TrEMBL record:
<protein>
    <recommendedName>
        <fullName>BZIP domain-containing protein</fullName>
    </recommendedName>
</protein>
<dbReference type="GO" id="GO:0046982">
    <property type="term" value="F:protein heterodimerization activity"/>
</dbReference>
<dbReference type="InterPro" id="IPR045314">
    <property type="entry name" value="bZIP_plant_GBF1"/>
</dbReference>
<dbReference type="GO" id="GO:0000976">
    <property type="term" value="F:transcription cis-regulatory region binding"/>
</dbReference>
<keyword id="KW-0804">Transcription</keyword>
<dbReference type="GO" id="GO:0005634">
    <property type="term" value="C:nucleus"/>
</dbReference>
<dbReference type="Pfam" id="PF00170">
    <property type="entry name" value="bZIP_1"/>
</dbReference>
<feature type="compositionally biased region" description="Polar residues">
    <location>
        <begin position="1"/>
        <end position="11"/>
    </location>
</feature>
<dbReference type="InterPro" id="IPR046347">
    <property type="entry name" value="bZIP_sf"/>
</dbReference>
<keyword id="KW-0539">Nucleus</keyword>
<keyword id="KW-0805">Transcription regulation</keyword>
<keyword id="KW-0238">DNA-binding</keyword>
<dbReference type="InterPro" id="IPR004827">
    <property type="entry name" value="bZIP"/>
</dbReference>
<dbReference type="GO" id="GO:0003700">
    <property type="term" value="F:DNA-binding transcription factor activity"/>
</dbReference>
<dbReference type="GO" id="GO:0045893">
    <property type="term" value="P:positive regulation of DNA-templated transcription"/>
</dbReference>
<feature type="domain" description="BZIP">
    <location>
        <begin position="22"/>
        <end position="85"/>
    </location>
</feature>
<feature type="region of interest" description="Disordered">
    <location>
        <begin position="1"/>
        <end position="47"/>
    </location>
</feature>
Length: 145
């Protein structure tokens, strides 16, 4: 039982060729680990970038939605105001037609022509001024500084 112990050595310890193969294997393992670490880091960065991009796009989407909502509300207000103005115009046209009908009846009954001149409205023709233009004389003495 107490015999001499034999030390069993691996082949790599005995043969330099095996030792070199073990060293290559160890370097390859380290290289693979480093490559896997870089791959994980790259994947992590890509994930963070995508999360950041999602957040940015959500904020942009929110701003666009707010702009659309504001524009839609403005459009609704415009349509509502336009409908009121169209109704007022129709009422005024009916009123004018009624007044013209009354004037026509008065002319027919009394035989007197009622020529009422149309009042010019500068708002309907903004390019034409309601009063004639008077030339403004300018002299060279007015331009002295």
């Amino acid at each position: 039982m107490g015999g001499p112990r034999q030390t069993i050595s691996s082949a790599s310890e005995e043969d330099p060729q095996y030792a070199m193969m073990d060293e290559k294997k160890r370097r390859r393992m380290l290289s693979n680990r480093e490559s896997a670490r870089r791959s994980r880091m790259k994947k992590q960065k890509l994930s963070e970038d995508l999360i950041s991009e999602v957040s940015r796009l959500q904020n942009l989407n929110k701003e666009i939605k707010q702009t659309i909502d504001a524009t839609t509300q403005g459009y609704r207000n415009f349509v509502s105001e336009n409908n009121v103005l169209v109704a007022q115009k129709m009422e005024l046209v009916d009123r004018l037609n009624s007044l013209n009908f009354i004037l026509q009846n008065v002319q027919d009954v009394y035989g007197v022509p009622l020529d009422i001149p149309e009042i010019p409205d500068p708002l309907l023709k903004p390019w034409s001024l309601p009063c004639p233009l008077q030339p403004i004389p300018a002299s060279s003495s007015m331009l002295q500084f």
